[in-house]
Amino acid sequence: MFDINFNYGDLEYFLLILMRVASFVAVAPLFGMQGVPPTRVKVLFALLISMLLYGTVPMVPLKYDSILGYTIIVLREVLTGIFLGFSAQVVTTITAFAGNLVDMQVGLSMVSMFDPVSRNQVTISGSIYQYTLIAMMLVSGMYRYILSAVADSFRVIPVNGAVFHTDGMLAQIRTYFTNYIIIGFRICLPIFLITFILNIVLGILAKVAPQMNMFAVGIQIKLLVGLAIMYMTAIMLGSACNFIYRYMQEMLTGFTRAMTP
User: Fold this and answer.
1) pTM of the predicted model as reported, rounded to 2 decimal places
2) How many structural domains compose the chain?
3) Structural domain of 105
4) Whose C-alpha in 67, 202, 203, 254 is 20 to 30 A from the C-alpha of 151?
């Protein structure tokens, strides 16, 4: 027969695990998408993951003597989950930046659409790159790494053991903003080069044949050429997503080390 004992102290410990997992799920990419899935599904998913992790998380004695002390521990676990999820979520914004650069080059920067997931106005190319990244995340199994990251965080950062080293976090954010422009520019580099050469050719033609309205002609040519290059370079998005996923792993590792006691 199984003898399962679950007292009030175990419930307090389980709630702390749930706080970190739920905060991570609410912010992490794919899992934290607004409206997809619904909020109640996210809550049930976080509850299920917490139940599975409860038997594997090392039990560390909690030291508090009042409700305020326990509240501080809860807030610490919430911040730990938010920082871990944020370190993975912030990397996905690179695709939106690359899409903005593409639309500026092909003449679609003024065209925007409402994204029901992020509930923001996004450009067409940025939305395409973002959903491609999410689709590749499902196909490649990257979501399993994200879940294993929050599960392994309990071994590196025990419950009520997070120490927020601001210098380490700021160093990771500084590195991110440095690579943010580099990675985004690499994704849109083929379109940028082709449209740049096309602008030079149109400028020369405007001087050679001033009677032609190069402004009206150039808009149509840049749009057609830009869409054609996007179609031909779609095969490169797999390598770009793989590069972003590796950088996401580095960000998760860096933020975990920045909170390690």
Assistant:
1) 0.82
2) 1
3) 8-258
4) 67
